[in-house]
Here is the input.
Amino acid sequence: QLQLQESGPGLVKPSETLSLTCTVSGGSISSDAYYWGWIRQPPGKGLEWIGNIYYTGSTLNNPSLKSRVTISADTPKNHFSLKLSSVTAADTAVYYCARHRYRITTLRGVKRLYYFDYWGQGTLVTVSS
Amino acid sequence: DIQMTQSPSSLSASVGDRVTITCQASQDISIHLNWYQQKPGKAPKLLIYDASNLEAGVPSRFSGSGSGTDFTFTISSLQPEDISTYYCQQSDDFPFTFGPGTKVEIK
Here is the structure.
């Protein structure tokens, strides 16, 4: 059974860098069938997709977070990581890692469709001094 | 970015009732619309993908329909364990965006 587990500090000071790791068990992040990514949810609010990574190292990030996001993968350790720099209180959220199942459609041009089919339990990160 | 809206924002229904949630996209997303269920304190769970396909292991009382900009999610007979917030999410265009959610409660 695939399991994802987030880990990292629960408290980060403003202007510093948030760092989280997602450890995957029961499956390999080196599989070519999946991407791996991050989604966050501020307390009491909705979901925001942050970005993903493929085993080749190719990444896709939400432009709303500009260049603050770095997603990397360590295939031997079977984990991937999120770094979010220059954090503010607005970055306080539950951060989820999730497997991105995908398929390619040619319905309207060629595009890759993602489905977030396995999630970690989430970890609350609070930005506060 | 594609904006997703949902209605209602919350609803209260009785066990056994048919429950319907609508989701609208700000532009044509074909059938590239997914539905998630999130129980309190838990991670979301994928229920429906590509507008109408039931994810493996999801009860058949859940269904979805629609294409273009208008989509519907239905629970045919509400059960106590369905108490959750439901989110739609478009996968048609980057960045992938979610609706604001619909909270379903038991009357």
